[in-house]
Structure formats: structure tokens, C-alpha cells
Amino acid sequence: AAWRDSPLKEFYLSVKPASLSIPGDCMYKEKIVAVVIPAYNEETQIQQVLASLPSYIDHIVVIDDKSADGTVGKVREAQRADPRIILLLHEENQGCGGAKCTGYKWARDNNVDVAIAVDGDGQMDPEDMERLCAPVAADETDYAKGNRLFHADACSVIPKFRFVGNFISSFLTKIASGYWSITDCQTGYTAISKRALHAVDWDCMFKRYGYPNDILVRLNVADMRVRAVPIRPVYGVGEKSSMKVMRVMFSLSLLLLRLYVWRLWKKYFIKDPHPLVLFAYFSLAQLALGGLLLVRFFWLWAQTGHAPELTLVLMLFCFSMGFQGMFFSIWFDMERNKHLQ
């Protein structure tokens, strides 16, 4: 109470934000709630985002990811009017995932009960914030993830290429993460519990595009509960994006394959042994061999002028065994993760 009334409070929050944990005056259901906002070149949007946050938020943690515009100055202006705002500065650009990790580590180290992630571009409706926060504050789930696809206007509001890309990446993320109830994996509008903040090693998380998928995989390995929460999709508010959908989809697919292999090894071989890991690894080997035989089939066909029958039979055998093993491993995985969704 003495710190809240102290004239030095704002000074210490701005100069040494990571060393203090001073809850605000309006806690949400007796929980300390922080909003984590990664910001990179958001000088036109960031003040509007900060002004829209509800009064029950105790800490507003803005992480500037080495912006080249006036984002820092805009945040400092808002900071003078709102002592809840804490500004953390990156010396090097780490990507949105890296900035979010910095905010999560601050929340973890400062006794925050619920950390809500909000982007600094104004694409997230503040009216959805309580819908995300409530189940985490009530200990009904450890990670509430926004789902824009549940909204009636999703098809008309979300750009078509992004909608299709989101659908494909979400399906692949279901397999990689084990959370089959999550259908909008790319949104960054989430709320995470104190328990989950301490369960994940944020220094090891993927820092660039793909970080929302990486978080889900790591939460599954830690046996955290995840819930999808409907939110309103927001576009056309002045946001800027440099994401190239096709290039991101290729790199994201490789990332998800690596995360899938890592999750099965960590969860079902090291942590809690289960035969599904054998089905999964066997199926991946068969599918990879089938892919090589497919290339060999067309190469021999082009060289000799006729289709090599033996190569065709072996290719079909590998693909059939690979898909069958994959289906069995996915079914086992779904059964093992029902209690987390």
C-alpha cells in the first residue's frame, strides 16, 4: 500500500521494471493479472492499444523489440499517464516470439497469476480479454487460446490466403501438439496461468513465426490444460504485416515436424513410456522411404520410358504401412490427451 502511494513508484517501474512486483489496485477475482504486449514499429497503434486495456489489469508489460520508429517514445508518453505500464527494451530484434518470451519471464518472476498476451497492432478486441482471462483465473484451464474461426464473420473478415494457411497449419499443429480441440493455432491472443508460466522453459522457445505452435507443443509435454475461447477477428485497423504466407508455411511445416518428433520422444519415451512412439517413428520412417521411392519411380520412368513395377509396389507398401502406423499413433495420442482439453 505504501508503494502504491509513493511518488517514486512510477520512477522505479520505468527504470527497474523486472526487479519489482507491485500489483495494481483492481485485481481480477483476487488474481494478479498482467498484459504482455510485444511491439515492433507500432508507433501508430500502440497508444490506442494501451488506452483500451481494462481497469482490472495490474501490470501492462510492453516489450519493444528494437523498433526503428517512435514506438518507445509513444509508450513513454502513455507511461506518464498510466503507472501500470512497464517498458522492457530489447537490445537486438528477437521476433514476436522472443518479445513475448521476455514478457512471460517477467510475469513468471513477478508473481503474476494470469498473463494475457496482446499484440501491439490493435488486431485484438479488448472486449474478449475477460473471456480469455476468466477460465484461467478460475483454474479451469492453464492456457486459454483465442479462436477467431468460431466467429460468424471469420470467412469474410480474415484474408483468404491467411484463412486457408491458418486452416492447414492448425491441422498440422493438432498432430504436432496433441491438442485436437484447438482450431486456430496462429492467433497470439492468449491467457496463461502461473503454473504454466513456471512449467515452460521460455529460453528454449522458438522466437519467430511458429512460436504459437511451439508453445502448444511445450505445454503438452508439461501436461497443461488448454482451452479454445471464441474471439472476434479484427483486420483493417492500420496494422502492417510483412509475412509471406507461402514461405512461412514451408518453414512452419518443417518446424512442426521437428516439434512432433521431439514431443513424442520427450513425453512418450522419456517422461511416460508408451508404445505409440514406436508406431509414430516407424510410420515416419516408412513415409520418408515411400517419398524416396516416389522420386525414384518417376526418375526411372523418365529415363527408361516405362514405369518400374517393383519400385511402384514397394512405394505403395511403404505409404500404406506409414499411414496406417500414423493413424494408430494419432489415435493413441488423442486418447492420452483427452484430460488436457
Structure report:
With 341 residues, the chain is an alpha/beta fold. It is built from 13 helices and 7 strands. It has a 7-stranded mixed sheet, sandwiched between helices. Helix 3 (46-51) links the parallel strand 1 and strand 2. Helix 8 (160-177) runs parallel beside helix 11 (245-271). The protein is elongated.
Topology, pairings included?
Elements: H1 2-5, H2 9-15, E1 33-39, H3 46-51, E2 59-64, H4 71-81, E3 85-89, H5 95-109, E4 114-117, H6 129-137, E5 143-147, H7 154-157, H8 160-177, E6 190-193, H9 194-199, H10 211-221, E7 226-230, H11 245-271, H12 276-304, H13 309-336
Helix pairs in contact: 8-11, 10-11, 11-12, 12-13
**SSE-based structural type:** alpha/beta
Global Rg: 23 Å
Which range does the strand content fall in? 5-15%
Main beta-sheet annotation? 7 strands, mixed
* Strand neighbour order, sheet with most strands: 3-2-1-4-6-5-7
What form results from the Cα inertia axes? Answer: elongated
- Annotation field: number of helices: 13
Helix content: 40-55%
Distance between the termini: 39 Å
Q: Please give the number of β-strands.
A: 7
Regions with little confidence, pLDDT below 50 for 5+ residues: 1-24
* Overall pLDDT score: 84
How do the SSEs run, as a string of H and E?
A: HHEHEHEHEHEHHEHHEHHH
Can you give keywords for this protein?
single chain; 341 residues; 7 strands; 51% helix; elongated; disordered N terminus
